Amino acid sequence: MPIAYITSVYVNGVDSGTFSGIRTPAYNGPPPRGYANSPVKDLESIDMRCNVLGDHQVPHTIQVRPGDNVTMEWHHDERTAKDDIIASSHHGPAIVYLSPDPPGENTFVKIWEEGKFAQGEGPRAPGKWATTADIAANGGRMNVRIPKGLKAGFYLIRAEMIGLHEAEVSYQKNPIRGAQFYPNCVQIEVKGDGDIELPAGVSFPGAYKWDDPGILYDLYCSTKATTTAPCTTTYQIPGPTVWSGAWPETPSVELGAMTGVTKATSWNTWIVKSVVTSSNSAGVLATSTYQAHWSTTYQTPSPTVQG
Hints:
The chain contains two helices and 16 strands. By secondary structure, the protein is mainly beta. The chain has one domain: Coagulation Factor XIII, Chain A, domain 1.
């Protein structure tokens, strides 16, 4: 089962609309069995940047200003209160990066992170983590603020959640296990007269290494009755430190009315191991090979109108 993916973005509590401005990941199978946002596990894949289809611009972008509160709403199946947000076993950190759009080498700057914030109690208790005990427990809401004085222009928000439930061995050594990455990207346009440019950041792929302590991590080691390996009860979030220009605190804001559909409409195209399949009610129409092509120029989209 997939972890959550971003279904909508609120700006200062105002909903931009379901899937508006979001580069929604590809479906991994035909309806009704497929789903969007399969995990990315290969740290060397271009899909680490914004997931599969992350190179495809969407028609609209979300307008913001420095200091605005941005709430990304993650869901598992549907935008309703009964949605479980993510699988309850997918404990791990949550991270937000910001990059000029289009991104390039060393352009992703970390502006927010949260990892393990409480130790577990009792047998096989993993503790409290950002993905499950914070975001899932709060309706899928991930909050971040647009940096103060940020220069106007087009940017990508790269938000991700990482599942560590199989991270005791790396995907490189055992492809059926390994940490699971769920990056999603949102197109924004920063307005205003700010003059602060983002510093040099990191690249995706490239920011994470196979032996990083935040990537290769035994979530349940400290709760096992017996173990031959030393256990680490602390956790080091992967990637660089948070940029000093980011807000030190990101308060949650009251959200207004939801706009848009509550469920994704049926799809007729999906991607499995880079093979794109298109179909209709009569059956398969065509297949082709998908390969990400990140443009170095920006096709200016229309702004998303705030309600």
